[in-house]
Amino acid sequence: MQNTKPHAALLASPGMGHLIPVLELGKRLVTNHGFNVTVFVATTDNSLSKSQLIEQTPSPNLLNVVLLPPVDVSSLITPTTGILTQLAIMMREALPKLRSAILAMKFCPTVLIVDLFGTEAMVIADEFNMLKYVFITSNAWFLALTLHMPTLDKVVEDNHVKNQEALLIPGCKSLEFDDTFEPVLDRNDQIYVEYKHMGVQMQKFDGILVNTWQDLEGTTIGALGGEKKLGRVAPVPVYPIGPLVRAVKPGPRSEVLDWLDMQPIDSVIYVSFGSGGTLSAKQTTELAYGLESSDRRFIWVVRPPIETDSAAAVFKTSHRSDDSPDFLPDGFLTRTRKMGLVVSKWAPQNEILSHPSVGGFISHCGWNSALESIVNGVPMIAWPLYAEQKMNAAMLTEDVGVAIRSKSLPTKEVVGREEIETMVRTIMDKGDARRARVKTLKSSAERALSKGGSSYNSLSHVANDSETAFKYLKAKPQGA
Ligand SMILES: O=c1ccn([C@@H]2O[C@H](COP(=O)(O)OP(=O)(O)O[C@H]3O[C@H](CO)[C@@H](O)[C@H](O)[C@H]3O)[C@@H](O)[C@H]2O)c(=O)[nH]1
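# uridine-5'-diphosphate-glucose complex -> structure
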């Protein structure tokens, strides 16, 4: 690699939900802003294989993608350690590997961009004199909560935690107790401390990039950048640069897409709970009966049920399986043969959502899935499972107006088949207002990303600052 243009090093934490948008950001920096990009991917023994990584990489020849040597965190976690705590620990353990990898490079990168779980890498950026940015792979509302955490910590949040009242975030939508982000609830849990620490660390960066755009979250973006800036003293600039989602890959077509080709326009509902979401056995059964009785076509990405942990499949390596889904109700596959397709564990999601036959999406509301649905003009049934997904579901349903959600999810353990049937019929209705709304947002997303659009300009700003730093460092005498 020549030292003739700014070089960005991106650090992705384990999990497809982080890796995919980080790779997409890398691609944009190369194609639109003339950067060299190296993407470092933190791994554990079972989180990702090289071949899966290559499969996810957009235009592999554009980016230099480096799998960091796996970290072993087995002695630092217990079977009950939550997924977010695990991620925070893994990323801390990966820092020496990142430092060694940067030291081994011929030219030191100009800028380091980390995701939420990589904020401790700022010491490495400082050590190597790099600009440093955080890339939030979720939305501005989640970012606002994160930045507000250190302030929240100073006032005892009795109202939210004990009285279950809404949590106030200045200038933003309040966070209802039923939609809350679990790490805020228990000061004694490690994830509370980790999450608050991330909120503190982020304020010390040169900027925060967030995967959203002005038209989608104008009020929240205003609160983050406006005069009061969430009450922060020396606010770090926030750059909405989204929606960054993968482009549909050319290449051999899968069986699923061939099946979709034979279905009428907007007739199929796609059901998936992201890269690692799982349902209980009872919920899987209710979903099966609900889909069947809705009498609508469907593609369902199923995983074997797991009773107590909805994030159980997050770090599982295998995306493909020939397992026959024997946990589905007796005769389900036979009865729905003409109406539906059941796919085991993993499907080409972006290709599916961009197919004209797909008219609805039952989603766990991981932010990438939500964005992929919006940019393809597909309305959603919001079915949050873990992490910040309940916040996303609330926002997509109540503010953005592109989704409906179950009335029973917050209170009951299982959403019943009748309610599922009704929700599916509602969202698949061609005249439903959410369908029109999501099409409007699709166009707005395209405008934001095109040359001169709000998100394009935000990323240009970051690129210009990096270019200036690059020229300055290049002109500086060695050792100065
Ligand atoms: O069968 C599948 C399942 C997933 N995907 C892709 O995998 C990504 C999944 O990302 P996302 O929808 O965001 O879900 P998670 O992997 O669960 O995402 C994690 O990261 C997100 C971004 O920070 C958070 O919003 C989520 O809560 C968190 O669980 C998307 O690009 C999907 O297209 C597929 O291609 N095929």
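# post-check
Residues 329 and 368 are 30 Å apart (CA to CA).
The two ends are 24 Å apart (CA to CA).
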